[in-house]
Design brief:
By secondary structure, this protein is an alpha/beta fold. Helix content is about 45%, strand content about 10%. Strands 1, 2, 3, 4, 5 and 10 form a 6-stranded parallel beta sheet that branches.
């Protein structure tokens, strides 16, 4: 059993065990006044068959989550959170904030109406490069090509193999080479699409996986808040510190200016655990609050807050939150409550 599977198995066991503990008891011991939960999508709603395999909430479970939050927490919006943050005031006890990453169309089609029905709002973090379906994330481009190959709609002719070789990948293991294309070699996906006459623009026009500017404006007018999530969801562990700062600066600039926002919030794409402290200290020049995904831990970086990836298991919200409280208690016992950075 590899380490990833082992960790998943251990988490599954702990999730079963934490159910027996009362939420109020764990909350009191943990002593954390703020819980921020993060979402991305709704199960079976994504047009990409590979991305649909990710663990997302079903619509039914998402509704149950919202009802649980309303009954068990003091749910506030990002505007209220920023007010407390700016004034340096303590948050009310048992505060909960809802965020959504990636700015997918499903946010407007399904999550937005469900949140409104429960009288709740969320902070949505978007990638300006994809809004209005102007472009497609490199992983989605890669998945389209892999789907074509799986369906035998295209094959590896000599021109395609030459393109793969030109980008320093193994032409003799061509399928695996495409599977392994990372962010820094993403331009290869455009060359391959041209060679195979795969039309990404037609896909974007048909599927429209991302939010439009009009949808974002409607949600803002309904009390939802928006922030940046980097320009094109670059994995920050694959780019330089300089490029990380550029992505923060440019994405914040576009989001604030395009929608005339009087606040500046940023959520780091993917996992923020290994972002350098110097990058985050520079980042506060462009945002007033940033967000990561290390559960309920505190952070050495200024104005940085962590979120619970509520979708990371199929457990009901009460169990998922109990699990996070237990993790926090463990971090406290180990004197690792605050995440330190290099």
């Amino acid at each position: 059993m590899n380490i990833k599977r082992f960790k998943k198995a251990v988490k599954k066991i702990i999730l079963k065990c934490v159910r027996i503990f009362p939420l109020l008891m764990l909350r009191r011991i943990a002593g954390q006044p703020l819980v921020i939960v993060n979402y991305h999508s709704i199960e079976a709603w994504d047009p990409d068959s590979r991305i649909r395999k990710n663990t997302y909430r079903s619509e039914k479970l998402f509704i149950e989550d919202l009802k649980f939050f309303k009954n068990s927490f003091n749910v506030i919006g990002m505007a209220e959170f920023l007010y407390f943050h700016r004034m340096n005031n303590a948050l009310p006890k048992n505060t909960l904030l809802i965020t959504i990453d990636d700015g997918l169309k499903v946010v407007y089609d399904r999550m937005y109406p469900l949140l409104k029905k429960e009288g709740l709002t969320a902070a949505v973090f978007i990638n300006p490069a994809f809004i209005d379906n102007k472009d497609l994330h490199y992983i989605r481009k890669r998945n389209i090509i892999l789907d074509y190959l799986d369906k035998n709609l295209i094959d590896f002719n000599s021109d395609v193999l030459d393109i793969i070789s030109d980008f320093g990948l193994n032409r003799f293991e061509s399928y695996q080479s495409i599977q392994n294309i990372n962010y820094n070699k993403r331009e290869l996906l455009n060359h391959l699409a041209n060679a195979w006459q795969i039309d990404y623009v037609a896909y974007l026009n048909k599927q429209s996986p991302y939010l439009s500017s009009d949808e974002i404006m409607e949600m803002i007018q309904s009390g939802f808040t928006f922030g940046a999530h980097s320009m094109d969801h670059a994995p920050f562990n694959q780019i330089t510190d300089k490029e990380q700062i550029r992505q923060i600066r440019e994405s914040m600039k576009q989001v604030v200016e395009n929608w005339h926002l009087d606040y500046r919030i940023f959520a780091f794409p993917s996992n923020d655990k290994n972002i350098r402290l110097s990058v985050m200290e520079k980042g506060v020049e462009f945002y007033e609050a940033s967000f990561g995904v290390q559960g309920l831990r505190l952070d050495q970086a200024p104005n940085h807050f962590h979120r619970v990836e509520i979708e990371s298991s199929s457990a009901i919200a009460s169990t998922a939150i109990k699990y996070e409280y237990c993790k926090l208690i463990m971090y406290k016992l180990l004197a690792k409550l605050t995440l330190t950075r290099k």
